[in-house]
Design a protein that fits this description.
- The protein is an alpha/beta fold.
- It folds into 2 domains: 82 residues, lambda repressor-like DNA-binding domains (434 Repressor (Amino-terminal Domain), Orthogonal Bundle); 195 residues, Endonuclease, Chain A (2-Layer Sandwich).
- The chain is built from 11 helices and 6 strands.
- The protein has a 6-stranded mixed beta sheet with strand order 3-2-1-4-5-6, sandwiched between helices.
- It is elongated.
- 28% of the residues are buried.
């Protein structure tokens, strides 16, 4: 994954936020802005939220309308448009990923901190290839769909996010049942736990295990909280379910999940104790 791909989604959202501030400071409505670029007010809303690609001509017209006439300042905005429109590496996998998951990958690539809580599986960014294959084939590799190998490659490609020279901070909290659930069989689980143990020693990765006696109290399901370095970007919570996924960024919603994370970090064993639990589980396999 190219190192400059991490910021594509973030740049798009930041650019949209800056355009919204310019519009509001100029006292211009979304409808009027939309008319200026031959679009609806709903499209302007999507642009300002960073949910669609930008056209240089549209941004140039909006800058003129908002009173931005300085050539250097205008060029800075247009350069942001060009960078924000760079396709993410995951676009090669659109045939095996739904649009909502592509949105999540874009946000994850842009995050400075990734907090994740898992009850059933090892977090995706920390899975071995054999474990991924067992999960994606539901333990029946002989009946795997034709696109399975491409989906496995996608998940392994995503993991380069935490092996790049400037990785985000990953904080994974895992239920104790995960390290004893024989996904793929004993050999696959042993290899997976050894990999977790190795990764837990990385300076940018923290792994904590919630012991069985405290499981289920702080949160009733898995979720991921993304935090960004850019001040314009709000925290985002990602929750996946059987039929899709939701991403939440409301202040009250983020507060609920932040409190849950705080409780989980307290209930979970310390990173050192969690490593001991992993080592013990490995010897028992």
């Amino acid at each position: 994954m190219p190192s400059d791909a991490r910021g594509v989604t973030a740049r798009r959202i930041v650019l949209g936020t800056q355009l919204r501030k310019l519009r509001e400071n100029a006292g211009i409505s979304r409808s009027d802005a939309g008319y200026q670029i031959r679009a609806s007010d709903s499209k302007v809303s999507r642009l300002e939220l960073g949910r669609v690609a930008f056209k240089e001509r549209d941004v140039a017209d909006l800058l003129t309308m908002y009173g931005v006439s300085d050539a250097e300042e205008r060029e800075q905005f247009l350069e942001m448009v060009r960078k924000a429109n760079e396709p993410g590496w995951w676009r090669r996998y659109t045939d095996v990923t739904p649009s909502w998951f592509q949105d999540f990958m874009g946000m994850q690539e842009s995050a400075a901190r990734i907090h994740t809580y898992e009850l059933q599986f090892v977090p995706g960014l920390l899975q071995t290839e054999a474990y991924v294959r067992a999960v994606l084939t539901r333990g029946r590799p002989d009946y795997a769909p034709a696109d399975t190998e491409k989906r496995i490659h996608l998940r392994m490609q995503r993991q380069t996010l935490i092996t790049n020279p400037n990785p985000p901070r990953l904080w994974a909290i895992i239920d104790e049942t995960v390290i004893h659930r024989p996904i793929g069989g004993r050999r696959v689980l042993r290899e997976q736990l050894q990999f977790l143990l190795e990764q837990s020693k990385q300076p940018h990765i923290t792994i904590q295990i919630v012991p069985n006696q405290l499981s289920g109290y702080a949160a009733e399901g898995p979720f991921t909280l993304l935090r960004f370095a850019e001040a314009e970007l709000p925290d985002v919570v990602y929750i996946e379910h059987l039929g899709g996924a939701v991403m939440l960024d409301g202040v009250e919603e983020i507060e609920i999940f932040s409190r849950a994370l705080d409780r989980l970090t307290v209930d979970a064993e310390t990173p050192d104790r969690s490593r001991q639990m992993l080592a013990k589980a490995i010897t028992e396999l």
